[in-house]
Amino acid sequence: MNKVFLIGNLTRDPELRETPSGVAMCRFAIAVNRNYSSGDGERQTDFFECTAWRGMAETIARYTKKGKKISIVGSIQMRNYEDNQGVKRTAVDIVVQDFEFLSPRDENDSFDDVADAPRASAPKKKPTLQAMDDDSDIPF
Q: How far is the C-alpha of 30 from the C-alpha of 53, rounded, in Å?
């Protein structure tokens, strides 16, 4: 099984692109803090490159930006490439299968259209309770 769960902050604004066949693709990176500190008390951080596809790619690109916290569920994918100097390198990418925004929406965040804004479910009304004056059924 190849599954990874990460919670971190975006290190840069997401980059939305399209493949030649028109499929949306979004690349971004997240910084994930480790649960422990090094010997000098400094907290260690890991950085992960992530790729989302289709509708997820468009949503992530539209509603997130650098510094926002996000939860990612995905799979690890290794790829080999040659850098500009001809050195063979290996990269580790996280292919996003599911995500959740964890940062609260800023008041400064704007949407192209009110209909584009993500919606939170309306709070349910609490039932009103009525006082009871009848103590005759209490067994003690």
A: 17
Chain segment 105-131, per-residue pLDDT in tens? 776 655 554 445 444 444 555 555 556
Q: Parallel, antiparallel, or unpaired: how do β-strands 24-37 and 88-101 relate?
A: unpaired
d(Cα 25, Cα 78) in Å, to the nearest integer?
A: 18
Residue 68, amino acid = K
At residue 57, the 3 state secondary structure works out as: helix
Query: What's the burial of 58, exposed, middle or buried (CB within 10 Å: 0-12/13-18/19+)?
Result: middle
Q: Which residue has the tokens 């990418």?
A: 93
C-alpha closest to that of 99 among 31, 32, 52, 65 = 52
Long-range CB contacts (within 8 A, 24+) of 15-20: 15/61, 16/57, 16/58, 16/61
